[in-house]
Amino acid sequence: MNFKTFETERLILKPTSEDDATFIFHLFNTPNWLKFIGDRNITSVDKAKEYINEKMVPQLKRLGYSSYTIITKQDNLKIGSCGLYDREGVEGIDIGFAFLPEYEKKGFAFEASKRLKDAAFNDLGIEVISAITTKDNLPSQRLLEKLGLKLYGTTKLPNDEKELSLYKMERLNNAL
């Protein structure tokens, strides 16, 4: 199957595949990933391959979108991940993003997330985008608000006691 790749002025967003396992291993073990998203027990490149094939690829095949590896056009470097996730316990499709530390605070997260948000509403037929973040992840909260999502309240994911901030945006009027 051939899945859609998206582009911005500086970035390529391509569906994450097994070829990205080394990158995913590094990203999932960065301090901010572990602090704000959580430990996914990706202890090796082989574990990253398993995670991609068990968690990302099935949704990609089922819905046509999932996790995207973010690559710079200038240097062809893998710098982050942005995705649209059909996440249990979250109404609508969850948008999420994470970048290697050296690529944070450079506008890449907004650029990639905005492109994916626009694709969700205009190309993929998604009606509601949601986002969850820990209450102390202020940079993510600011980015979600810049994208146009509004704080909707709090939620807890299944089998997790941590209360998360919940943001939402509806396609029709781009606000809830």
Q: Mind explaining what this structure looks like?
A:
- The protein has 176 residues and is of the alpha+beta class.
- It has one domain: 3-Layer(aba) Sandwich (Aminopeptidase).
- Helices cover 33% and strands 27% of the residues.
- It has 5 helices and 8 strands.
- It has helices at residues 21-27, 31-37, 45-63, 108-122, 138-147; strands spanning 6-7, 11-15, 67-72, 78-85, 93-99, 128-134, 150-155, 164-170.
- It has an 8-stranded mixed beta sheet with strand order 1-2-3-4-5-6-8-7, with helices on both faces.
- The longest helix has 19 residues, at 45-63.
- The relative contact order is 0.15.
- The model has no long low-confidence stretch (mean pLDDT 93).
